[in-house]
Amino acid sequence: MQVGGQLRPLGVGEILDVGIKIYTRNLLTLFKIVAVVVIPVQFLTAIITLTATPDALVGPMTGETEFQPGEPVEESEFWTFLAGLGLILLLGFLSSTLATAASFKAVGAAYLGGAPDWRSSLSFATRKLHSVLWVSILSGLFTVLGFIALIVPGIWLYGCYAVALPALLTEDTRGTKALRRSFRLVRHRWWPTFGLLILTAILAGLVGQAIGLLFTGLIFTPLGDSVFVSVVLNALSSTIASVLTTPAVAAITSVLYFDLRVRKEGFDLQLLAQRIGATATGPSMAPAAPEWSGGPPSYPTGPPSDQPPYWPPPPWWQPPSQPGEEQPPPRDS
């Protein structure tokens, strides 16, 4: 690991490449993180589904599904079904948020040259779960309100809040501070950030759809005649899709966060490693800036109004003038 090393900004393709490399090199650890959280929740979800769904909708539990469109659903069964559905959604939200936060922690350690551990990552995420949930709820609420307001503001906020969770876990900025922190980092880089989010969502969606289609095909075989088997197959499909896609999305989003800090704050590896409690045991996954032997760079000396609104081209990037001061993005070479 490079101590105190200066990193270089990455393009969208490079961020995707580094994120996938971190994901593939730490598959077992990341899979354990998600599986430990998701499998018990999927088990509970299956039980709730089997017990809360009215017979008029799913038929006998031990026989073939016999849907009767005209068969009425009793009021008590209807409210039981709604309560079960609400509990399933709540459990899904909690498990997804915890698995994502723990994946962020593991990916951050791997990015900085550490050896991620699934137990310590889950413990770290559990301690901060209340803050993670609050930031997730706030970002989701504001984004939904933005979509209600003619859709475009929601799309814009979706990109602005892309790195709120990594900022919370790495810098311990909570609540609306984490949202503002993400907003400042994404500012002037919204389009590349949004493009990367969409590309990541498409890739994850394709994987999830492929797994879902595989298990859906099994449901339409004689195996699907049993409601119990259908529910189990659906739980397996959801579990496998979550285990495969959750850490991948977290890895790419984490690299995006680190890249934004490289561009705007100089980004010191050792400082960040100490902040998140990572212990370097190998080379960092972070691409370093190329070595330069041509002497120090020269910067414009005229008044601010005459200076260009960008830094000199790579391999040099101007360090921040003050701690935490935001800098404009580097000019592409």
Please describe the structure with a list of short key phrases separated by commas or semicolons:
about 325 residues; disordered N terminus; mainly alpha
What does this structure look like?
The chain is built from twelve helices and no strands. The protein is mainly alpha-helical. The chain has one domain. The two termini are 26 Å apart. The N terminus is likely disordered.
Going by helix content, strand content and strand pairing, the class is mainly alpha
Order of helices and strands: HHHHHHHHHHHH
**Ends apart, CA distance between termini:** 26 Å
Instruction: Report the count of strand segments.
Output: 0
What is the strand and helix layout of this fold?
Layout: H1 12-25, H2 27-52, H3 55-58, H4 75-111, H5 118-127, H6 129-148, H7 152-160, H8 164-171, H9 176-186, H10 190-219, H11 227-265, H12 269-276
Helix pairs in contact: 1-10, 1-11, 2-4, 2-5, 2-11, 4-5, 4-6, 4-8, 4-11, 6-7, 6-8, 7-10, 8-9, 10-11
Outline:
With 333 residues, the protein is mainly alpha-helical.
